Model the fold of this input.
Amino acid sequence: MSTFSSLNRRAFLKSLAATGAVGSLSPAQLLANTGKKAPSWQNWSGNQSASPSQLVYATDENVVLDTVRNSTGTLRAFGGSHSFSGIVPTDDTLISLEPMAGMRGADANVFRYGGGTRLAMASAMAYEQGYSFTNEPDINLQSLAGAIATSTHGTGLGLQSLSGQVESLRLITPDGEPLELTAADGDRFLAACCNVGALGVVTEIGFRHEPAFRLEEHTWTLPLREAMDFVEKEKDNFRHIEFFAFPLGDQAIVKTMGITTDPQDSPTRADDNDLLEMVSKLAMQAGWLTPTLQKLSTLFVEDSRYVGPANIVFANHRTVRFNEMEYTVPAEQGIACLEEVCAAIREHDINVFFPIEFRYVAADDNLLSMFHQQAGASLSIHQYFEQDYQPLFDVVEPILRRYAGRPHWGKIHSLGRKELADLYPAFDRFQAVRKELDPRERMLNPHLKRLFL
Done:
């Protein structure tokens, strides 16, 4: 994960060896691949897969229109395949938006992109033209259509998710009708900006950008209690602030980012993904070592600063796979909720090496946004992809729900229509738009039926 970008690799391995743990498992055991044959489609972590009767690679909007109009059964679309929930799989027609990538045009600070454009590509293109996304997540391999469908976000109490940065979009309805949507279209637009893929296929999106800016990232470690207190006190004083909590090691990695005029780019971040993979496997196979591994992971994270263009500093290179649950609770209750989550993990002796990521996000008006009309604190719970995530999520989810947490649409959760309707004030308004645009329920796979029927 990005938390280890400043980790002193050699010192960490030396200390790890001193525990005798490294010698107990061979390199092949530590870095072994699962060896499973890939299905017709699977997501990044491998917990979702599908073998559709028809898999269409849409090279342009005409292909989408033909597919929608001439296919039968359930229709789903995918982009970067970075969602962990079951929003993509279908046995019928699956449309890949990957070929529909690139910039389609610009009008002042609004840039239009194909729905399959990866965030990394869009952000780099905008920067070349003298603009930046207002905010970005630290993974930038999602397609833009998928990112707004799930209200993907970065961190910053005054900054909205990617869904909140949308100025316009083009939607192909399940009946094959193209719609151009802006704020003037009311609930149709507010539904489409965070649509969970339930309204049709988004082929083009217009994002509002800011003049290009550079960022300085500061990363350091603190004991977990001190990190909580610092972030709670300083959350309004930084453009971006977050931290990564290690409940078993009782430590945290804190990260802030702010706009800088420093013209000097920092050296490229070190890639410690191999180290993280090794430690994750070790923690999985020798759970008694996990608290020590968490302490070591923070002990050897150096206090560091990293400067560069916004699109470079926002992004982190991640190859170590995991599965994730994320809920957003009211911002003012975030730290209290995290305290309970950490205590429950310790009490139930849950073996999890990956830290909990804690971020703030500004409110917006999108109907199904986790941040609908309230600023939120997002708690992201990760488990290494080869480990069973259910014991961890079963312990944590009831706490997140008790704080009126709203689940991230692209992450694992157990909620259905009744619970979601209670959590999202505009749920019925979204349902009205969905029924209008998809009266035959073509976009509803089993997962979405649980959400909306």
In short: The mean pLDDT is 92.
